[in-house]
Design goal:
The structure is a single chain. By secondary structure, the protein is α+β, with helices and mostly antiparallel strands. The chain has five domains: about 5-105, Rossmann fold, CATH 3.40.50.20; about 135-200, ATP-grasp fold, A domain (Dna Ligase, domain 1, 2-Layer Sandwich), CATH 3.30.1490; about 205-250 and about 300-315 and about 325-460, ATP-grasp fold, B domain (D-amino Acid Aminotransferase, Chain A, domain 1, 2-Layer Sandwich), CATH 3.30.470; about 465-585, Glycoprotein, Type 4 Pilin, CATH 3.30.700.40; about 595-665, OB fold (Dihydrolipoamide Acetyltransferase, E2P) (Beta Barrel). The strands form nine sheets. It has an eight-stranded antiparallel sheet. A hairpin with a 4-residue loop joins β26 and β27 (about 535-540). It is elongated. The structure holds adenosine-5'-diphosphate (2 copies) and magnesium ion. One adenosine-5'-diphosphate binds next to β7, β9, β10, β13 and β14.
């Protein structure tokens, strides 16, 4: 066995590999770009080597520099993780030429599966069923159109070098074929440097079911059952599960056999995945699955298979790479329970899953294991305070659960997702939560079109409820800040300083402006009124950053975070983001001078709380203006005395109208 390995990757997969290596007594070397100098994987490794600036082409894709790092630190082998150099046969050869071991399949196996067309031809030879289609070298558009007619519409055009869901076009009408072919070729060229395409019959109501395989250098290959990855958006996986719902034993055996044959055909070693497209229009059939492609690496979603088999796939990879025989035979393997994985990303679901960036002001996960099997397993390469940068994949964590049955595991997933608290970036958490509670998914009725069909309901960002708004208002005033003192009786006693006054808070929740009026009745006891409703509650500090809320005869726990103007409320299984608005700053932006207050927008004066001659301090609420159905509180721009009041309640004012003036200041 190796005594030291280098991990040619970053983020959660680097941390994942380091965890198993450490458990096996193997020292680890991390590599990092400038953007990752303080990253988790660097902190976890025994040693780390800088390989270049942030862009991947100048760091994580520089094979030579990574090999140099391994040689100079005395590592004997390189684990590539997934992505980056993991499926680059030239890199594998360079690693071996340097006298190091590549922890993965041989270069020849990667090459054989690297292009989808050649891989399909190989599979046909090996007797593995493939999706009917055309994968010839002749790329003449007319010939390809004729082939598409023969296959029968709808067809799917795929760039043969494609990956990550890119370079694919679904064509339903022959009239659109020529245009779609051009588009797929363009995308193949720009993303993968290869315009060649193949055409496939588009399987309607498709399910994506893949088989995990593992081979050693002694001719042994086993399959570790299937994963269902049908929940996809834009051909990318969102939630994966193992085993697949409603999988008949005979179909499982047939798919497993086909995957093992595929692996044998290319003398595969290490961990790999054979992906099949499956007819999901009815019960799964032995003649209803077809080879799509093989991924010659450890896959993102491997933890669900680890959960149901009780194995550590990174350990198996290391043992096989070190020359050992597989410690398991096909007949030893059993499926234990059910597992799900949800991919938690910094992305804006409402904006078409646009990747997001940001600093993780707050990050907390449910209790559970990290990078190792357990009922709740969180694999995350980032920590609170880390930045989701634009340089790399915006994954925050993989949330993995393992339960005795599908129903229990799915409940566990919903629960675990609800206990993931992220502030500082938009995430897909609410979307994942909605998916975990989706009726059809719950019944196991999955297909690759499910998300697209129900996207509106799944991305429903319903307005925050009255309790969330009330907590945000209290949080904005700092009333729920957990005290440093451990004496809970003195907690939340802001009222002593405040008296029983009312306080106005302005919050933005998405496009909605909320004005909340907060009244303090006593220690931790508040009423929050908005134009919609009034909420009276009592708040007590609870464990960690949580507060316990008693509202009439119901008690809940919640967490309210304040980072700059941002307020994030976690209650129930939802989180809601708010921004505190400073109407003063807004008014200043709108041109209110130091000696006067002008209307920042046209509106109606709802209330005036001062009279000429009154002394005011900076920030005192002076006038409430109603505009565009929202209330805006205008505050004193500085300390001073009101000179002249120019408007009264009920007045309609134009944008920029001077509302009152202050006595000139001393300076
Ligand atoms: P998996 O099949 O393992 O779930 P995907 O098919 O979604 O993974 O992506 C394939 C692999 O390629 C993953 O390891 C992912 O990290 C990587 N990958 C996908 N898109 C990109 C990209 N644009 N740049 C770099 N790596 C990518
Ligand atoms: P990639 O290399 O991008 O992962 P794949 O060939 O694995 O490309 O296809 C990605 C996804 O596209 C699949 O998971 C599936 O959802 C869909 N898909 C691929 N081929 C077909 C097909 N013939 N019919 C229907 N859907 C397909
Ligand atoms: Mg694929």
């Amino acid at each position: 066995m190796f005594t030291k390995i280098l991990i040619a990757n970053r983020g959660e997969i680097a941390a994942r590999v380091i965890t198993t290596a450490r458990r096996m007594g193997i020292a680890t070397v991390a590599v990092y770009s400038d953007a990752d100098a303080g990253a988790l994987h660097v902190e976890m490794a025994d040693e780390a080597v800088r390989i270049g600036p942030a862009p991947v082409a100048e760091s994580y894709l520089l094979g030579d520099r990574i090999i140099d790092a391994a040689l100079s630190t005395g590592a004997q082998a390189i684990h590539p993780g997934y992505g980056f150099l993991s499926e680059n046969p030239d890199f594998v050869e360079a690693v071996e030429a340097a006298g190091l071991t590549f922890i993965g399949p041989p270069a020849s196996a990667i090459r054989a599966m690297g292009l989808k067309d050649a891989a399909k031809d190989l599979m046909i030879e090996a007797g593995v069923p493939v999706v009917p289609g055309y994968q010839g070298a002749d790329q003449d558009p007319d010939l390809m159109a004729a082939e598409a007619d023969k296959i029968g519409y709808p067809v799917l055009i795929k760039a043969r070098a494609g990956g990550g869901g890119k370079g694919m076009r679904l064509v339903e009408d022959p009239a659109d074929f020529a245009e779609a072919l051009k588009a797929a070729q363009r995308e193949g060229q720009s993303s993968f440097g290869d315009p060649a395409c193949l055409i496939e019959k588009y399987i309607t109501t498709p399910r994506h079911i893949e088989i995990q395989i593992m081979g050693d250098g002694h001719g042994n290959v086993v399959h570790l059952f299937e994963r269902d990855c049908s929940l996809q958006r834009r051909h990318q996986k969102v939630i994966e599960e193992a085993p697949a719902p409603d999988m008949p034993e005979a179909v499982r055996a047939a798919m497993g056999r086909a995957a093992v044959e595929a692996a044998r055909a290319i003398s595969y070693t290490g961990a790999g995945t054979v992906e099949f497209i499956v007819d999901g229009s009815g019960p799964l059939r032995e003649d209803g699955f077809w080879f799509m492609e093989m991924n010659t690496r450890l896959q993102v979603e491997h933890p669900v298979s680890e959960a149901i088999t009780g194995l550590d796939f990174v350990e198996l990879q290391l043992r096989v790479a070190a020359g050992e025989r597989l410690p398991i035979a096909q007949d030893d393997l059993r499926i234990d329970g059910w597992a799900f994985e949800a991919r938690l990303y910094a992305e804006d679901v409402a904006k078409g899953f646009l990747p997001a960036t940001g600093t993780l002001d707050h990050l907390s996960f449910p209790d559970g294991t990290r990078f190792a099997r357990g009922p709740v397993r969180i694999d995350s390469g980032v920590r609170e305070g880390d930045e989701i940068s634009p340089w790399y994949d915006p994954m925050i964590a993989k949330v993995v659960v393992h339960g005795p049955t599908r129903e229990v595991a799915l409940n566990m997933l919903a629960q675990a997702l609800g206990a993931c608290h992220v502030a500082g970036s938009v995430t897909n958490l609410a979307f994942l939560g909605a998916l975990a509670r989706h009726d059809g998914f719950g019944k196991g009725k999955v297909d690759t079109g499910l998300i697209a069909r129900d996207i509106a309901a799944l991305s429903d960002t319903s307005a925050p409820n009255d309790l969330a708004v009330a907590l945000a208002a209290l949080g904005a005033l700092g009333l729920l800040d957990v005290p440093d003192s451990t004496d809970l009786f003195t907690a939340f006693t802001g009222f002593r300083l405040w008296g029983a006054a009312q306080h106005l808070v302005h919050l933005d929740a998405g496009d909605t402006r909320i004005e909340a009026r907060v009244t303090l009745h006593g220690a931790g006891r508040f009423t929050v009124e908005t134009s919609e409703d009034a909420v009276t509650l009592t708040a007590h500090p609870a464990e960690g950053a949580f507060v316990r809320i008693q509202r009439e005869d119901r008690r809940v726990t919640a967490k309210v975070l304040r980072t700059g103007p941002r307020i994030t409320v976690f209650s129930g299984s939802r989180s809601h983001g708010f921004t505190t608005v400073d109407p003063l700053a807004e008014a200043e932006d709108a041109g209110a001078g130091g000696d006067g207050l002008t209307a920042p927008m046209p509106g109606r004066v709802l209330g005036v709380s001062v009279a000429a001659g009154d002394t005011v301090t900076k920030g005192t609420a002076l006038i409430v203006l109603e505009a565009m159905k929202m209330e805006h509180t205008l505050r004193a721009p500085r300390d001073g005395q009101v000179a002249e009041l120019l408007v009264g309640e009920g007045d309609q004012v134009a944008d920029g109208t001077l509302l009152l003036t202050l006595e000139p200041g001393d300076d």
